[in-house]
Amino acid sequence: MNKTAASDEIAIFVRVVERGGFAAAAEETGLTPSGISKAVTRLEDRLGVKLLQRTTRRLMLTAEGETLLVRGREILAAIEATEAEVMAARGKPRGTIRVNMGTAYAKHRMAPVLPEFRARYPEIDLVVSVADRRIDVIGEQVDVAIRTGPLTDSSLVARRLGEARRVIAASPAYLARHGAPEQASDLARHTCLAISGLARLSEWPLTVDGRVTSVPIKPAVTCDNADILAEMALAGLGIVRLASFVIEDALADGRLVALLTDSHVSEAVPITALMPPGRQHLPRVRAFVDFLVETAPRRLQGAPETVDGYGPPSARIRE
To answer: What is this structure's pTM?
Structure first.
């Protein structure tokens, strides 16, 4: 069997695992489920090991299958990166990048700079998905996922784009009706608005009697979309605590007022680009991520990066 056929079989095996079955992989690749199954069987016969345990309900990876999945992804990414690098040598980076990000980052950070990116790299096309939910970056074949908040360990490669701070704020209209909270205990009598799905965002860190304390709030409204919460605050509904880049314009022009500035502990909120291993080496992906770092507001630049700007695998997102 030639190397091209071997890499094709590895690619089919990886897609079967990522899509969760032969039928789903067949639909994506244009092959038949039978053809997909036969390709995996040929790969197992050639390697002399079982890669998948097949049951009537699901597929399970064997230990050998786990090893091949990790190495197979690296091999396929290396092949694509090499081909892309050779092609890029003839001109600027080209191709399609699949990007995922939350609504707030897409609106406030991504959209304003896209015209400049397209002017600089006209042969790079972007497929942007915007979702305020966790996604399977590898399974959904995303090249770059941009996340706001702390990360937990996983197999994704991380690059720091910058950081933001959280701000507690309300509109002048709300404050005219209810007054401004002056200390942590005052929040109990105010209408608070909070991000849903993350319990820790319903506890606001404030200095109480000289100590940093996580002050629980009882939100009158929860929502999984930061921009919607910001609009609610602008309409005078209540008090929010959001990443600074979501409401910085409203704070600058007085439509929102920062509150509890002397006691609020505004921790850093990291903004990170996450990539499946190997994707960071693709010229088009590197150009895109470098551009985001370059155009990030200097006041949001985060902690020093690792060698070449890329950190070790680290990624399931908490926020």
So the answer is: 0.65
**Other CB atoms within 10 A of residue 201 CB:** 20
CATH superfamily, with its number, for domain 90-161+269-317: Periplasmic binding protein-like II (3.40.190.10)
C-beta atoms surrounding 118 within 10 Å = 13
Query: What are the residue ranges spanned by the domains of the chain?
Result: 3-87, 90-161+269-317, 165-268
Provide CATH code, domain 165-268.
3.40.190.10
pLDDT tens, position by position, 173-215: 999 999 999 999 999 999 999 988 666 677 899 998 888 888 8
- The residue among 195, 178, 201 whose CA lies nearest residue 230 is 195
